[in-house]
């Protein structure tokens, strides 16, 4: 059974303009519906650069970036980022309560959808929190709680693809396990009325975690994808 | 730190504005209230620097030499501009007036950038263009619709008026650009998070733009709110010293405050719009490589 290709990059390169060093050599990759891609490699190997390029956060110097077979027009990039969102290692919180942070993505012109308190509560319960969590000041949360909030904020916009950049590096093992369970629910469309295309890339240094989560493994080194394998 | 003191800038033009009021034949009567100042009397004022010198020596501040250098430099600069203005006022032709106005504008634009820490490649053209547009439009409206001198380019009116507008605009543009660029640089992760959640480039930078516009407007708002209570503004002081009738001096001061506030708003918005277009991309991301810290 062939799965629909969601994102395809062809021969994309990135250069650090200050040092003039190539940080991503010509890279080709397809992300298909149903892909659970583990991304490994030492620090500085180009993992974050690849994820940022996939999210169109950095300029494409050469090569092509295609979403559903077509290049994304400039004016559609905010909409593309609702389909393909990037979650960095360190959660970013904004002023106000957790609820203020969760409603933020619904204040943008790109969407006509509104914030769902029920949806937020459903995810909070999966992390063992209740509605009082919504009224806490976001910046006063622990690093791990901030990361949970950022993950829920990301899930509430209901993306098709999530690009995770070492998201559980600062979490304890119990929260990490909850995080993975919520990811599985999202991936299987557990909470949706209809099946939507789903895929993710998970960057990590933890091989055992990638064995649990991934069905494809990409190994990066010195700005290149050195090998691609199947998770055991 | 960027100098917020608008009165200091005004003070440079006090004598010229007195001249302007005289040229318009309005209420200034040197024989009644004006006091002629000779170079000898200026020299007596210079002896007050001894206080600064003593403070510096007593507290070992190490700025005595700098005080002398700055004082000499200020005296020479003002004497030279005085000579230039004297010639231009005497000739009263449009071309030297516009050349001097152009030179003043370019210097103001360059000065606006000098104290900004975060730069991008074309920041000088941004500042010069913004200060040119804002100051010349506002000065033009003031000359043609409010003061209406004959001819419209009368140097004793145009030059001091433009000087005051430029001095205040450059402060606003400088403060606005500094705040905007440093906000963008310091909040990189927040801005990218907003972009990742579907914000447009404008939505991701809006907070920084608001902060920057506020920062640029604060000095003139402060000056306007305390004018006449805490301080007598520079232009009014000059006219009063020259013997102007107080209500006439007040009307001039109110008018110039409105003119300056408009120039700052126009200059700030123009410069921020240009900076925003330069540091963001139509592909809804930030051009991080454009942003460089000074001396890097």
Total number of helices of chain A: 7
Strand content bin of chain A: 25-35%
Bin the helical content of chain B: over 70%
Can you write the helix and strand succession of chain B as a string?
HHHHHHEHHHHHHE
| CA gyration radius of chain A, whole angstroms | 18 Å
Q: Order of strands across the widest beta sheet of chain A? A: 6-7-8-3-9-10
Query: Helical stretch count of chain B?
Result: 12
Largest interface: A-B, 30 and 19 residues
- Uncertain residue ranges of chain B: 1-32
What does this structure look like?
- The complex is a heterodimer of chains A (232) and B (296).
- Chain A is α/β, with parallel strands linked by helices and 232 residues long.
- Helix content of chain A is 29%, strand content 27%.
- Chain A is built from seven helices and ten strands.
- Chain B has twelve helices and two strands.
- At the A-B interface, helix 2, strand 6 and helix 5 of A face helix 9 of B.
Layout of strands and helices, then pairs:
The complex is a heterodimer of chains A (232) and B (296).
Chain A: E1 5-16, E2 21-32, E3 36-40, H1 47-54, E4 62-67, E5 70-71, H2 77-83, E6 84-87, H3 98-103, H4 117-126, H5 143-156, E7 161-165, H6 173-187, E8 199-203, H7 207-213, E9 216-221, E10 224-229
Parallel strand pairs in A: 3-8, 3-9, 6-7, 7-8
Antiparallel strand pairs in A: 1-2, 1-4, 4-5, 9-10
Chain B: H1 6-11, H2 14-23, H3 39-46, H4 49-58, H5 64-91, H6 94-114, E1 118-119, H7 123-147, H8 155-186, H9 188-196, H10 201-226, H11 234-241, H12 246-279, E2 292-293
Antiparallel strand pairs in B: 1-2
Helix pairs in contact in B: 2-8, 2-11, 6-7, 6-8, 7-8, 7-12, 8-10, 8-12, 9-10, 10-12, 11-12
